Amino acid sequence: MLSAQERVHIAQVWDLIAGHEAPFGAELLLRLFTAYPSTKTYFRHLGDYPDPVQLLSHGQRLLEAVGVAVQHVDNLRAALSPLADLHAHVLRVDPSNFPLLVHCFQVVLAAHLQGEFTVEMQAAWDKFLTGVAVVLTEKYR
Questions:
Q1: Which of 4, 9, 68, 69 is the most exposed place for a label (fewest CB within 10 A)?
Q2: InterPro entries from the entry (predicted)?
Q3: Percent of the chain residues past pLDDT 90, beyond the cut
Q4: What is the domain partition of the chain in residue ranges?
Q5: Three-class SS string for the chain?
């Protein structure tokens, strides 16, 4: 799936995010809800106006899952299988929402990392996150 250089880019970006998962994740969710209001359907527990503490908490969990994917980039299916089951069978998230999440994540990365987030890194992360989204949708079949 990913070339050796792409894996390096994934790790470099993750090193910049590590330790800041909650704020990155919270901003990702806010951007998702703002740009795609229909996605709030799956976050009813956060309410119409999410509490910052709840956003940080859910954002932390979201980015921790991305961290698991980064650590298991060679075996995303096995690493993300429980998460895929949860989203497909319990939460019943429409899989068309995963690309929206990927897009918002790319925006958050670019906004925060700016010059450190090179075109090559962006391309690697796009490929990686698309792979994560594909794995998460496989349980829907």
A1: 4
A2: Globin (IPR000971), Globin-like_sf (IPR009050), Globin/Proto (IPR012292), Hemoglobin_a-typ (IPR002338), Hemoglobin_oxygen_transport (IPR050056)
A3: 72
A4: 4-140
A5: CCCHHHHHHHHHHHHHHCCCHHHHHHHHHHHHHHHCHHHHHHHHHHCCCCCHHHHHHHHHHHHHHHHHHHHCHHHHHHHHHHHHHHHHHHCCCCCCHHHHHHHHHHHHHHHHHHHHCCHHHHHHHHHHHHHHHHHHHHHHC
